């Protein structure tokens, strides 16, 4: 058996992978240890136009967090597939019309990628490593008890329903716009579309995105975690300006079997960062910075355990 020390001396192997899908295939990168593959994982990306490396050209994010995570895991014997989600990067052609997209689409894709990762690495199952909104995707994907999913690693994810988070973000709006925003949100939570959302909030509530929002707002990450019977790791940084430690603790409280690790001084993209917002955001733009000490080790140790 290859020892961990020997595995660290070998270079991982990167291979393009394609997953059949409609209307077009999905694409990703399989990174395997050159030595023995001890486990397999799928890195499930966060919200918006986030690519397989964890970057977003639209928002200027170049942290390369997923690539760095995959490389660190490969050095420790864990193979991974990191993916371009539908409509992003090489999977752009697989993106449906906005009005046809549902949150369950991403969950279905995560399940399919887990089966593909298991098959490509000759493992019985693969872990889902969700980051940011990918945490909710991973939880939803695992909710049907798929035996191709070994367990869940949840990083920098919300522990409360999206409606709660959106109300917090909308609270700073002036009246009466805030009241109208809350009314629209309540209608969507009830499963009803709104024909005339405020023009000022079209980016959030435009009619074409409302069916997706309705499918998203029904999900509660804490309830999904409570109902999941497999192993769960929850990792959260203290200088994350997008998600708080309270979110991670909410998942832990809902599922006491979960392992919770809090990294001091680590931000949303899993790198060492100060709490100062400008300096913290600057970290999002620097792919040369490594992941914070302890992040890869904690994830790998849990998966391999």
Task: Characterize the structure shown.
Helix 2 links the parallel strand 3 and strand 4 (78-84). The protein has an eight-stranded mixed sheet with strand order 1-2-4-3-5-6-7-8, with helices on both faces. It has twelve helices and eight strands. The longest helix has 19 residues, at 103-121. It is globular. It is 36% helix and 17% strand. The protein has helices spanning 4-7, 65-75, 103-121, 133-141, 162-170, 177-189, 202-205, 210-217, 221-227, 245-254, 277-283, 295-304, and strands spanning 13-19, 26-32, 39-44, 78-84, 126-131, 149-155, 232-237, 259-263. With 305 residues, the chain is α/β, with parallel strands linked by helices. The protein starts with a helix and ends with a helix.
Helix content: 25-40%
Mean pLDDT: 95
Largest beta sheet: what is the strand line-up? 1-2-4-3-5-6-7-8
Strand composition percent: 15-25%
Give me the strand/helix succession: HEEEHEHEHEHHHHHEHEHH
Principal-axes shape call:
globular
Low-confidence stretches: none
Radius of gyration: 19 Å
Give the count of helical stretches: 12
Q: What can be said about the biggest beta sheet?
A: 8 strands, mixed
**What structural class do you assign from the helix and strand content?**
alpha/beta
């Amino acid at each position: 058996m290859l020892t961990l020390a020997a595995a660290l001396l070998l270079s991982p192997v990167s291979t393009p992978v394609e997953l059949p899908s409609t209307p077009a295939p999905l694409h990703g990168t399989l990174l395997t240890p050159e030595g023995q593959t001890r486990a397999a994982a799928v890195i499930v990306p966060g919200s918006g136009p986030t690519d397989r490396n964890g970057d977003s050209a639209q928002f200027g994010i170049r942290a390369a967090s997923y690539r760095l995570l995959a490389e660190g895991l490969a050095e420790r014997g864990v193979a991974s597939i990191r993916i371009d989600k539908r409509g992003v990067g090489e999977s752009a052609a697989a993106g449906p019309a906005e009005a046809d997209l549902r949150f369950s689409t991403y969950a279905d894709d995560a399940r399919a990628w887990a089966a593909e990762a298991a098959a490509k690495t000759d493992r019985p199952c693969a872990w889902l490593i969700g980051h940011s909104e990918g945490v909710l995707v991973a939880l939803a994907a695992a909710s049907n008890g798929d035996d191709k999913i070994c367990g869940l690693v949840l990083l920098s994810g919300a522990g409360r329903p999206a409606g709660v988070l959106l109300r917090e973000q909308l609270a700073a709006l002036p009246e009466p716009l805030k009241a109208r925003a809350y009314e629209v949100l309540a209608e969507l939570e009830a499963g009803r579309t709104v024909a005339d959302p405020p023009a000022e909030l079209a980016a959030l509530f435009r009619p074409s995105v409302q069916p997706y929002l309705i499918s998203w707002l029904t999900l509660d990450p804490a309830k999904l975690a409570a109902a999941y019977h497999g192993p769960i790791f929850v990792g959260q940084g203290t200088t994350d300006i997008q998600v708080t430690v309270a979110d991670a603790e909410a998942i832990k409280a809902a599922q006491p079997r979960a392992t919770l690790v809090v990294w001091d001084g680590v931000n949303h993209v899993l790198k060492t960062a100060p709490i100062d917002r400008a300096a913290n955001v600057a970290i999002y733009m620097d792919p040369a910075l490594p992941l914070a000490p302890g992040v890869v080790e904690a994830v790998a140790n849990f998966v391999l355990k």
